[in-house]
Write a structure and sequence with these properties.
Blueprint (H helix, E strand, L loop, with lengths): L15 E8 L3 E8 L7 E11 L4 H4 L15 E9 L11 E4 L10 H4 L23 E5 L4 E2 L6 H19 L8 E5 L5 H10 L3 E6 L5 H7 L3 E4 L5 H7 L3 E6 L4 H4 L6 E9 L11 H5 L4 E4 L5 H14 L5 E5 L3 H10 L5 E5 L5
Helix pairs in contact: 3-4, 3-9
Keywords: Metal-binding, NAD, Oxidoreductase, Zinc
Organism: Mycolicibacterium chubuense (Mycobacterium chubuense)
Pfam family, one: ADH_zinc_N
Length: 353
């Protein structure tokens, strides 16, 4: 796809920008904010697109320490740098960048010193602990910036910065070898990307979802097999296919994940990326006999996000999106929460911004 329309020079910009902030539960307010220079170690970004992710509930539904304090939601952000703060190296005005769920490591804590940037103990979360991308302008730590290639549009890149890297990294974290059977549980915002990545990474792919009507979508996305978990025991169905070397569990339901453990081959892994409100239950003997594992996987670092974008461009992986205008941000959030979106909702800023 062609690059997005260029962003105007910052000197020609207004001294204010628009942002949707939230307080309490779903109390959206469109406000004007003063444009400021970025703080030390940060950049200012003119936002082009921002994905609407289910994790936005943390801000919008008041699931944070102080819901009375206004915050701008959104963490699937793509735009262009228009100002660079002191102490920032390697980034320049005009760079096309993105940022996902993690807002940049501190490079000082124990986990950072060991290179485990995802588990940095001093890392902001855009859209939750600090302002995010439901705005014309975003300020972010330079350590969290992701270079976005020109070959992908902003509206396609935005969901890949969270949903994409989450499933891509989970697959790469498994021990599954070339041609191994890998199952993707769920065909929603995460799962529809997981099936594509699994196929393009060279696995034999089984898609697991509820309802026979989803079989066609699974095949279109690249699945070799479809398992209707409403009609069949998914664990038994996977065993009948030879057993899965890995299962990526994307649907936010512990009860739907639980039967999948029995469908793993010996040494197989259940990688959990869907945050479920109910517990995942497992028979300990199933883990012990066969050495099966259950693991969690949380998004990815900035450079891993760049790997994901590069692979997506090269392999032709793209999200299925519903694009809505910035002014419709509250309605876009409601659309995402309805579960009817196919499959990622994305806010797009006016080209003249």
């Amino acid at each position: 796809m062609p690059p997005d329309a260029p962003v105007c020079d910052s000197h020609a910009m207004s001294s204010t920008y628009r942002a949707y902030q939230v307080t309490g539960q779903r109390q959206f307010e469109l406000v004007d904010r003063e444009l400021a220079e970025p703080e030390y170690g940060r950049v200012r970004v003119r936002v082009q697109s921002c994905g609407v992710c289910h994790s936005d509930v943390l801000a919008v539904e008041g699931q944070r320490p102080d819901p009375s304090s206004p915050v701008v939601p959104g963490h699937e952000i793509v735009g262009v740098v228009d100002a660079v703060g002191d102490g920032v190296t390697g980034w320049n005005v005009g760079d096309r960048v993105g940022m996902g769920f993690l807002g940049g490591q501190c490079n000082a804590c124990e986990f950072c010193r060991r290179g485990d940037f995802v588990n940095c103990t001093d890392q902001p979360q855009p859209g939750t602990t600090e302002d995010g991308g439901y705005a014309e302008v975003f300020y972010g730590r330079a350590t969290g910036l992701v270079r976005v290639p020109d070959a992908v549009s902003a509206s396609d890149a935005a969901p890949l910065l969270c949903a994409g890297v989450t499933t891509f990294n989970a697959l790469r974290s498994t021990d599954a070898g070339p041609g191994a059977l890998v199952a993707i549980q769920g065909l929603g915002g995460l799962g529809h990307l997981g099936v594509q990545y699994a196929k393009k990474l060279g696995f034999r792919v089984a898609a697991v979802a509820r309802g026979a009507e989803k079989a066609g979508l699974a095949e279109t996305l690249g699945a070799d097999h479809y398992i209707d978990s409403a009609a069949d025991d998914p664990g038994a169905a996977l065993v009948a296919l030879g057993g899965a070397s890995a299962v990526i569990a994307t649907a936010a339901s512990g009860s739907s994940m639980s039967p999948l453990v029995a469908g793993l081959r010996p040494r197989g892994q259940l990688m959990v990326v869907g945050a479920a409100p109910d517990p995942l239950e497992v028979d300990t003997a199933t883990l012990i006999f066969g050495g099966r594992r259950i693991e969690g996987s949380l998004t990815g670092s900035a450079i891993e996000n760049e790997d994901c974008l590069a692979f997506s461009v090269a392999a032709g992986v793209a999200p299925m999106t519903e694009v809505m205008g910035f002014d419709d941000a509250p309605r876009a959030y409601e659309r995402m929460m309805s579960g009817k979106a196919r499959f990622r909702v994305v806010l797009e800023m006016p080209a003249s911004i």
